[in-house]
Amino acid sequence: MRRSRNAKIIATLGPATSTPQAIEGLFNAGADVFRLNFSHGTHAQHQARYDAIRELERKVHRPIAVLADLQGPKLRVGKFLGDVVRLEAGAPFRLDLSEELGSAQRAPLLHPEVFAALGIGTELLLDDGKVRLRVERHGTDFADTRVITGGDLSNHKGVNVPNVVLPISPLTEKDVIDLEFAVDMGADWIALSFVQRASDVQEARRLIAERVGTRVRLLSKLEKPSAIEHLDDIIELSDAVMVARGDLGVECPLEMVPILQKRIVRACRAVGKPVVVATQMLDSMVHAPSPTRAEASDVATAVYDGADAVMLSAETASGDYPIDAVTMMDRIIDRVERDEHYRVITDAARRSPEHTTRDAISAAARQVAHTVGAAAIVTYTSSGSTTMRAARERPEQPILSLTSDIEVARQLALVWGAHTCVLTKEVRGFAEMVNKAVHFALHEGFAQTIDRIVITAGVPFGCSGTTNILRVVEIAEHSEHGHG
Prior knowledge:
Blueprint: E1 8-13, H1 20-29, E2 33-37, H2 43-60, E3 65-69, E4 84-87, E5 92-96, E6 106-108, H3 112-117, E7 123-126, E8 131-138, E9 142-149, E10 151-154, E11 159-160, H4 173-185, E12 189-192, H5 198-212, E13 217-222, H6 225-229, H7 231-237, E14 240-244, H8 245-251, H9 257-271, E15 275-278, H10 293-305, E16 309-312, H11 314-317, H12 322-337, H13 340-348, H14 357-372, E17 376-380, H15 385-392, E18 399-403, H16 406-411, E19 418-422, H17 430-443, E20 452-458, E21 467-474, H18 475-478
Parallel strand pairs: 1-2, 1-16, 2-3, 3-12, 5-6, 12-13, 13-14, 14-15, 15-16, 17-18, 17-20, 18-19
Antiparallel strand pairs: 4-10, 5-9, 7-8, 7-11, 8-9, 20-21
Helix pairs in contact: 1-12, 4-5, 5-7, 7-9, 10-12
């Protein structure tokens, strides 16, 4: 099944979408990537969903990506006597390391690293910012605070510490266990939560390499203001980035979130790294059959900005209308990409190619395809690099990506405009490359015999990052030789 749109859709699986029938329904509605959220569910549940995805992949003959999203070092208060307490504005409130049940005067916060990083005047946000505290006194095992914004506080609510870099690893013990399971299972992307600085990505890569090697790709979720201060370094060390607007919107002033979203998308676009926009995109569709106008505009804005993918969370994991949510997102993306102003905005945002052969070839492929009116740009890739460079150029033509590596094919399902086909074996020569490109362009419905295609590849074949060939092919001259 060929998607006509370029921006991809990530659908989170959960209680509402665990059956093979539900997963197939999401795919048919437009989902390209399935997210397994390791903050919820058991390994057995995730394995069953993964198996259903791979069975669907075999059925539809199209690579499907699986994104395993690790929980990360989520900070939470402990439990309260009676499960919930009421904090009054102006009242004192202590956080400490004692496991004793909490009250309206104190609560357990079993994270000593938080107390080590606090200062006088530091603000703590509880339950997504519904309750706000300000630190008046602190030590290695406690913090005496004043309640700035009161409200009800119940067991295990989250704690955010804005504008403070916490001395914690990006991978908890739970994350390491989940990581090993996810990679052994076959996940294509690992999402790293609460990245604060470039060293977090380096540490995660080291831990991943020690345990599972380098096959899996790493996506960094930007959820803290400190990550924005190190944005370029984090992007450089990551394979992709997610604008995770949930916690980002708690720790930053709300009016800053759209600005930061655009900044992150632009920075990723500049270097050709995939970027995902996520959180509450069609949130009202958790319980309603249609979104608000503002939510439709939110999705459209991410597409106009050039995001590689947009993500649905609770809408598909636990919502009442999961397939409708994917269908609506698909409709919004498709309509935006057919708007004449979309192409104007996309072309205006294009950066100059980097001073490398592969970037020069990718930029030239876009320009040549435009000039000759090609039906598609066909990329041969062993690592995904050639296809990603083509996608960075945001061409008018669809990108047909050919690879002999099924894992690379799945990973590219996250990338803007990439429609990937898996070759049964690596091509051995230039003539075979052209014949296969023609075959798949016709077979996948990208071109007709009267059309031209533009081919980019790297020789010698099979070498990563060696994009150095550009060829314009008249389909009619080669179609009789095409074979898969």
